[in-house]
Amino acid sequence: MAEEAEVGCARPTGGPVGEEQVETQEQQQVQPREERSMVMVGQKAPDFVAPGYQKGKFVNVKLSDYLGKWVVLCFYPGDFTFV
Amino acid sequence: MSIDSMFVHKMWDDNELSKMVDGGVPFPMLSDAGGKVGKIFGVFDETAGVEARGRFLIDPDGVIQGFEVLTPPVGRNVSETIRQIQAFQLIRETKGAEATPSGWKPGKKTLKPGPELVGNVWKEWNTSMAFD
Q1: Domain residues of chain B, as ranges?
Q2: Would the CB atoms of B65 and A42 count as touching at under 8 Å?
Q3: pLDDT one-digit tens code per residue, B28-67
Q4: Do A75 and B72 touch (CB under 8 A)?
Q5: Mutation for testing the B interface, residue in A20, A35, A53, A71 having most B CBs under 10 Å
Q6: What average pLDDT does range A61-80 have in this prediction?
Q7: Average per-residue pLDDT for chain A
Q8: Rounded Cα gap, residues B35 and A14, in angstroms
């Protein structure tokens, strides 16, 4: 039966049910832990292309096309999240 | 930018945002399925599979001048974002000859860094100027 869930501003996600798979030592050696990286102020923003929606049209946007302008790039958890 | 598809962006704009902003969102709403872009900017939450509320200011040379990252329940302050852009634009115009002290906004006093200013900021600026 489905339970009613509380709704917050974090986008809800699910995942597999059951015991978490324990990585064997061998697997850990094969897959070195991914380093979390963060961009730095004063450094070039990494260029990217992304599909999007703008005023009734689907568009492709490349960050470097905006060279010469100030850009505010915003990330957010998901459409319809409240704030 | 979020992990939502451009189709969901359209539905959100059509059904909700256009009721808050005349004509809908004017700028591109970008899709980052899989969080690849969010990952290189350091805002992709691998556990939740979504992006944090990150905001990056990128100057005309493509250089990141500032960023702010918040957890989901707290919204941004757009006035503060605009104030920061105005400050960075002033720095750029003066080629670094002027600096904007805490609480600066357009019309308020800037500082001119140099040998004479060392140890003398107190003559030019006081803590009440940090506030509106």
Answers
A1: 6-51, 79-130
A2: yes
A3: 999 999 999 999 999 999 999 999 999 999 999 999 999 9
A4: no
A5: A53
A6: 97
A7: 84
A8: 17
Q: pLDDT at position B111, please?
A: 96
**Best A9, A43, A63, A75 residue to mutate vs chain B (most B CBs within 10 Å):** A75
Domains of chain A, residue spans: 50-78
Structure tokens at B47: 């556990």
Please report which confidence band the pLDDT of residue A11 belongs to, taking 50, 70 and 90 as the band edges: confident
Residue A5: band (very low, low, confident or very high) from pLDDT cuts 50, 70, 90: confident
> How far apart, in whole angstroms, are the C-alpha atoms of residue B5 and residue A70?
25
- How far apart CA A73 and CA A62 sit, in angstroms, is 12
